[in-house]
Q: What sequence folds into this?
């Protein structure tokens, strides 16, 4: 976006996929990320309705959200044991409420692991919170990361109490953790000057792509950036995962067609994707129970082997698989650093 604003004569059609926008207040970005984490807990609940391997399968709507609230209340009363963790095991025991909240954010990062999250909740209810245990290597963010994000945000020391007030309405499930807030705090000691916060507007014809359940770079920042580009189109995928590059061709095809033909896609609005053309406004983010689950929504864990309907109005059945649950998702923090760069490379596709 910086390049396009500085050298508009060198830019024609361009696709921006998952956006860390210039000029958006830190408080708004933190609120959006916390709201997305809450939506992902609800999406895990939706996932469970169709996943026969889910421990809460068959218990109906809100079974997962109720389990989350119960486990969180338990950890707030007293830390819970993590039977697989301890000295020299790479994770800490016991697990506090803050560990639980952070662990949920890690499981939802980049490629959400809904099966593992649901299994972790069930194990926690039965005395073993190992899946949510704090792992010291989760977020090792040093000077290099601060250097990268400083060009996008003006860092300011924001108190936890102040932010709690800001995002309380978007945090009904009490996931009081945001990587964007953490980066702001960590980089508040950056000793060098940074550019003054400013929005970047453009009249160029861009395509902005986002997904409703992208925790790394939520859909609200992409909407903010799109609003600074009046001749652009916003493509909203009603699914999860960070960026849409690896998702079904129906999404990446929209970008390829635009890059090849210079023709912006027309208006579309359904339970899989919404395209908002120039001159229109965006409505509220769709709820977790109003959008598809499964591979069509971008789920890339065990759901590929689960037959789903497009939305909750239908019925789903199939053979689930837990083969992909054996590995840990705790290594995804480094991918989040790339996510914070906003995937500004604009869909490197084969033209």
A:
């Amino acid at each position: 976006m910086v390049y396009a604003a500085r050298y508009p004569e060198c830019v024609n059609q361009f696709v921006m996929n998952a956006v860390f926008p210039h000029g958006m207040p830190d408080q708004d970005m933190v609120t959006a990320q916390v709201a997305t984490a809450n939506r992902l807990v609800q999406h895990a609940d939706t996932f469970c309705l169709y996943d026969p391997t889910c421990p809460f399968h068959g218990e109906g709507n809100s079974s997962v959200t109720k389990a989350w609230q119960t486990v969180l209340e338990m950890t707030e009363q007293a830390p819970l044991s993590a039977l697989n963790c301890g000295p020299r095991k790479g994770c800490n025991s016991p697990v506090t409420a803050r560990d639980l909240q952070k662990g949920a954010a890690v499981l939802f990062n980049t490629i959400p692991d809904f099966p593992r999250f649901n299994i972790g909740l069930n194990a926690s209810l039965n005395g073993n919170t190992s899946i949510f245990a704090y792992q010291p290597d989760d977020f090792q963010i040093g000077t290099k990361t601060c250097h990268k994000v400083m060009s996008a945000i003006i860092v300011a020391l924001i108190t936890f109490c102040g932010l709690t007030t800001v995002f309380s309405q978007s945090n009904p499930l009490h996931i009081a953790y945001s990587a964007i807030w953490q980066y702001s705090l960590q980089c508040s000691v950056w000793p060098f000057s940074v550019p003054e916060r400013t929005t970047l507007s453009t009249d160029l014809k861009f395509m902005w792509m986002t997904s409703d359940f992208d925790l790394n770079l939520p859909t609200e920042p992409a909407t903010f950036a799109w609003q600074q580009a009046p001749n652009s189109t916003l493509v909203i995928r009603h699914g999860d995962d960070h960026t849409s590059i690896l998702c079904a061709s129906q999404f990446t095809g929209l970008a390829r067609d635009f890059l090849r033909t210079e023709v912006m896609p027309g208006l579309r609005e359904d339970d899989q994707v919404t395209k908002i053309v120039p001159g229109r406004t965006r409505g509220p983010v769709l709820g977790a129970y109003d959008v598809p689950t499964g591979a069509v929504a971008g789920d890339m864990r065990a759901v590929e082997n689960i037959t789903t309907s497009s939305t909750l109005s239908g019925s789903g059945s199939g053979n689930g698989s837990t083969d992909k649950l054996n590995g840990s998702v705790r290594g995804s923090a480094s991918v989040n650093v790339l996510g914070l760069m906003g995937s500004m490379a604009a869909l490197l596709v084969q033209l």
